[in-house]
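[audit] Reproducing an earlier prediction to check determinism. Same input, same settings, fresh worker. If the tokens differ from the archived copy the diff job will pick it up downstream; this log only records the rerun itself.
[audit] input (167 residues):
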Amino acid sequence: MVTVLFFLLRYVFLLVLCIFIFRLVKWMVGDLREVRERHPVATGSARPVPEERELPAKTAGGRLVVMESGSSESEPGDFYLIGAGVSIGRGDSNDVVIADSFASAKHAGIYLKDGQYWLEDFNSVNGTFLNQVRVEQPTVLSSGDKIGVGRIIFQFVRWGHEVGSNY
């Protein structure tokens, strides 16, 4: 009688262990898929830019990559393509809309002039920062520059074929 009970308990334990392992693997795969969707730059997959973030020119010469974010709307790794020019701010009329109370309705702009991208602050209350220095007048951007708007920090990345580098 005792041997039969131990025999049954052993198989019940084995069944519970298999169910636990199956659920653990299922949870891990789901978590990995979520990470891949949230952070396309880190995983190498290219997530399409959502419709509301799509900018006018598909042949953009650069992009703004979110490095740090104080809002759940924009997460590190999200990016915005830059064409001939974009406006950044909290208002819906901007090309790059950021949900941040420290950003003005029309905060800043990036535009292309004479083959160079320029950053301009539109007299925002909290200011626009380029590499942690407040922008007082239109300033030329270089690839890798960090742009601070509110609590969001973007990195400006210029396409490699335009500047002769290999990225």
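[audit] rerun output stored. Observation attached for the diff report: The longest strand covers residues 62-68.
[audit] end
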